[in-house]
Amino acid sequence: MSILVASSLSGGGTWAATTDSKLPDPAAAGFAEKLYRLDCGHSLANDESVWTPGKNVGKSIEFSSTCWLIKRGDQWVLWDTGVPQSTINDPKGWSTLPKLIVYHLDKTITSQLADLGLKIGDINYVVLSHTHGDHIGNVGLFPDSKIVMQRVEYTWISSPDGPNDNVNQLKALARNLMGKPKHLHLVDGDTDLFGDGSVSLVSTPGHTPGSQSLLVHLKNSGFIILSGDVVHLEENFEKNIVPSLNTDKAASIASMDKVRRMIATYNAKLFINHDKAQEDMLKLLPAFYD
Question: Which stretches of the chain are assigned E, i.e. beta strand?
Fold first, then answer.
C-alpha cells in the first residue's frame, strides 16, 4: 500500500497558506527534530461495512492503532495515547463498542517511552486527535502534561445524546477516560503549537465534531500529515467514503478535501492511523523520521 503524497492525487486544487492562516507557509516553516511511531494497539472488527457503508457487510477487518511522539528541541509531544495499557497481553482484549470491535495491546506506552530513556513526566504535550477511547485510553497517565484538544470536541462529549447508540456509547466512554485533566488546553480551529510552523494542529471535523489532524515538518522527511481519524483506509480517502460512525458526512468530505489540498500545498505524506497495511510499512520506535 502506498503512502499518499501529492503526486498520487488528482483534482481538488491547491491550498496556499496566507498571512491570515494559522497553518504555516511551507517555505518558512520551522522543523521538529524527530518523529517516532509507537505501537498503541491493534483491533479486529466484525463488520467492515461500518467503515465502508454499502460494502463488505459482515466481513471482519483488522485495524492498527498508532500513537506518535515528536521531539522539538527540549519539548516532547505525544499525539494520541492509544488503548488503555492495562489491556497489555489480556487475551480478552478491550473494547469501545463490544458488539463491534475488540482491541489488543502488545506494548505499553510506558515501556516504549522507556526504550528512549523517557519517563511519563518528560512528555510536555499530549495532543488528542479526538475523544474515541482507542485514542485517549491513557490520558490519565499524563497528569502533568498539557492536554491539547479542540474546544468543540471537549464540549461535545458532554452534550445530550443523539440517535446513534454507538456514538452515544463512545461519548460516555470518552467522559470517563478524559476525567478532569489538570492542564487542559482547548484550541479553536487550526493552531500552530509552537508558533514556528514545525507542529500544527489541523481542524478536520466530521468523524467527531472536534476531530483534528497534525502537520509535522521535518528537515529530511519534509511535511507529514498524521491523519487522526479524518480517514480510516486509503480507499476511503480516494473515494470519499464516510464511516457510519462519523457525526457529520458533509464535514467529513470537506475535511478529506482539505487534507488533499494540504498534501498538494506541502508536498506532504499522509500517514493513515488505522490503515494496518500502510502503518505496517512505517518505521517503528526506536527508528524515527527526521
Answer: 34-45, 61-72, 75-79, 101-104, 125-127, 146-150, 184-187, 191-192, 199-203, 212-218, 222-226, 269-271
Tell me if 240 sits within 8 A of 284, measured CB to CB. Answer: no
Question: Topology of 6-13+22-279 in CATH?
Answer: Metallo-beta-lactamase; Chain A (3.60.15)
Residues 285 and 140: their CA atoms lie apart, in Å, by: 22
Q: What are the extents of the domains in the chain?
A: 6-13+22-279
Per residue of the chain (290 residues), give pLDDT as tens: 456 554 333 333 433 443 346 899 999 999 999 999 999 999 999 999 999 998 999 999 999 999 999 999 999 999 999 999 999 989 999 999 999 999 999 999 999 999 999 999 999 999 999 999 999 999 999 999 999 999 999 999 999 999 989 889 999 999 999 999 999 999 999 999 999 999 999 999 999 999 999 999 999 999 999 999 999 999 999 999 999 999 999 999 999 999 999 999 999 999 999 999 999 999 999 999 99
